[in-house]
Amino acid sequence: MRWRKQSRPARGYSLRRRLISTTLGSSILVGLVSTLIVLAIARKEVNEAYDDWLKEGARLVLALGEGGPGRDAGQSRPNDAQPTLRLDYQLVSRDGQVLLRGEDAPKQPFVDPNRRGDRYYDVRADGEDWRVYVRHHDTLGFSAQVGQELDDRTDLIWDMLESLAWPLVGLWALLGVINWILIWRLLKPLERMSRGIEAKSPSDLSPVADDSRAYEVQSVTAALNRLLGRLDRALEAERRFTADAAHELRTPLAALASRIQVLQRSHPAGQAPALAAQLQRLRADMMRTTALVENLLQLARLDPQSADAMPRELVPVQPLLQDAVDACAQAAAARGATIQIEAREAELYGNRDALYTALRNLIHNAVSYGRKGGQVRVAAERVGQHVALSVSDDGDGASPADLERLTQRFFRVLGTDVPGSGLGLSIVARVAEVHRAELRFGPGLNGRGLGVTLLLPNTGTR
User: Fold this and answer.
1) CATH at 219
2) What is the pLDDT of residues 302-319, one digit of tens each?
């Protein structure tokens, strides 16, 4: 058998964080590219300015050479009448001798004097990279070579970059804060819509409030409200059908039950035992069908209810438990079961009719699925800020796998011959839901059987 590799669910992410990171990241990227462009333009302009400076310097050096080219290289006297040039210059003869040079200029020519033409050169001299402009004097036969270390130009570019760096970092930080605030405000309608959707329940499918002016949010809210409207109409139609069908079935079922009773009186067991047995089985089926219809009616009444709309009041506990036990007295007598009432709490806060229905179903299940001649305990006690209504028996109980499905509608434990519809615990679960109560399953009496507890919040007591 070939096994398919199960795909892992996609990992979620924060839309707010992704928006901030993408906008800030793109802004930083654009800022860096803009900075590089500015630096490139600045480098070009700086190079052109320095090149012009070198060219002008070469002209001045030629003028200096015309006045006295025979001075020894490196001679410089402060009281000299000749102009002092703060340039890395050389005045080079045609045979390659340096006739005159600046204080920091190399002793060897920057460029071979045999190279003709007035132009710029990138050379390396004295272990440094230089930018040199060479200008020849055609009449006197020497050339002026004016150079500048390329590091001076690079340092200027780096100084410019350093001057731009801190303002850019500050602007990016300010941009990040502004983006975070704006995106947080723009996404607030989505958060409000999320809270509105989370507050919805099967009994509350009203439209989600739309207080955003953003077209994208409005379109999502409108689509969601249309979906909620269709779902509400579908559930309402289902509830109406269930209630109408159950209500309409009550009359014919009651008529059939009456006719079966008439037939049983007309054909007593002593005269026609086979027919009497068939009529008895038919009557049992009729009773089970009637119970199913009653349960469907109860569910149809409970399904539209919500926890907020359910009417509640202070309910005396002892009469409530007693009425539920009396409703199951006939079934308990048929099974030989004994029902014990333990009311340790005087009042609870809830809907009496719904709680009565839940208790009656729990007691009926305990009697039906417990052992014959067994014990059933119905108790009410305070547990912290709650009142616990519990029904326990000493029967065989339920397996862990069945416990997880007991509240599913129409689920019945296999292997039992007890008639039923599989809706009793579903009704109990629905009663717990509309009361915001907790439904717990555990062991029954003396560690045997099944114990079911309805933990009700007792917020209405004084």
Assistant:
1) 1.10.287.130
2) 655 555 566 778 889 899
